[in-house]
Amino acid sequence: MNVKQEIMDVLGQIKMQLTYSQEIGLDAPFLSTKTLSYLTRGPQKDTTPLGEESCWNSLEELENFISNCVRCRLSRERKNIVFGEGLPNATLVFVGEAPGVEEDVRGKPFVGPAGKLLTDIIKAMGLTREEVYICNIVKCHPPGNRDPGPDEIGTCLPFLKGQISLIKPEIICTLGRVSAQALVGKDFKITRDRGQWQGFCGIPLIPTYHPAYLLRYPQAKRQVWEDMKKVMRELGLKDPRELED
Ligand code: URA
Question: Domains of the chain (ranges plus CATH)?
Answer without folding.
Answer: 79-235 (3.40.470.10)
